[in-house]
Specification:
39% of the residues lie in helices and 19% in strands. The protein has 235 residues and is α/β, with parallel strands linked by helices. The protein has a single domain (7-229), classed as TIM Barrel (Alpha-Beta Barrel). Helix 4 crosses helix 5. The chain starts with 6 loop residues before the first helix and ends in a 6-residue tail after the last helix. The model has no long low-confidence stretch (mean pLDDT 95). Bound molecules: pyridoxal-5'-phosphate. Pyridoxal-5'-phosphate (PLP) is lined by residues 37, 39, 60, 82-83, 166, 207-208, 223-227.
């Protein structure tokens, strides 16, 4: 049997590569947040990653996260929702997650705001952008981002922090680079408008096969699943 690297070995490797990408692009390691995407993996795997030092975890489905969370209640982790969210699950998402990366409509933003606990803290959110304009993918088109950002800026219970992208799947990370650049340029353009309560500080971009390129292009959050937890059996 071939030996499978442990989760802590995987994390050490990912950390090395993040550090190298930061050095290459003159960035500081602390300016890039590693979010471990644990979908399809059991709570034990998340515990192992926590023990190896990770504190940010991401899931793409509310129900799956809710099923795992009781076993992880003692971990002081930050939970990120990175998958598409239906408006009827906004309340459950709000109860489960500290960040939502996948806001793609005003209606969803309003539902998340309505679900805010009284006197609760603002929910940090990102707008998901569909840069490839792929019909099957969630996210708003680049041309619609500014208007949605303005609208979310008016919602008190939400704190708009930036943009998120899942680029089209392309075999070579170099082919993905232009999408990361586009997201960064779009964020800069919107930042330059100085819209009230709109920050474009965070760029959530880069997954297992392209996070290094994403960091070179300015990612502040990388979402890494397979490179930490191994291949997913089902999805
Ligand atoms: C699954 C997933 C990831 C992680 O993908 P890997 O290729 O396994 O690193 C990142 N972002 C989102 C939105 C995902 O659904």
């Amino acid at each position: 049997m071939e030996t499978v690297p442990t989760i802590s070995e995987n994390i050490a490797r990912v950390e090395e590569r993040i550090a190298a990408a930061c050095r290459r692009s003159g960035r500081r390691r602390e300016d890039v947040k590693l979010v471990a995407i644990s979908k399809t993996h059991p709570a034990e795997a998340i515990c192992a990653a926590f023990a190896a030092g990770l504190r940010d975890f991401g899931e793409n489905r509310v129900q799956e996260a809710q099923a795992k969370l009781p076993a992880l209640a003692d971990l002081r982790a930050t939970w990120h929702l990175v998958g598409h969210l239906q408006t009827n699950k906004a309340r459950a998402a709000r109860e489960t997650f500290h960040w939502v990366h996948s806001v793609d409509s005003l209606r969803l933003a309003e539902k998340l705001a309505q679900a805010a606990p009284p006197g609760g803290a603002c929910l940090p959110v990102l707008i998901e952008v569909n840069l490839g304009e792929e019909a099957a993918k969630a996210g708003v088109r680049a041309a619609e981002v500014q208007e949605l950002a303005e609208q979310i800026g008016r919602i008190e219970a939400l704190e708009l922090r930036g943009l998120m992208v899942i680029p089209p799947f392309l075999a070579s990370p170099e082919e993905v680079r232009p999408y990361f650049r586009q997201l960064r340029d779009l964020a800069r353009k919107i930042e330059a408008r100085h819209l009230p309560n709109v920050s474009m500080q965070e760029l959530s971009m880069g997954m297992s096969h392209d996070y290094e390129v994403a960091i070179e292009e300015g990612a502040t959050i990388v979402r890494v699943g397979t490179a930490i937890f191994g291949e997913r059996q089902t999805q």
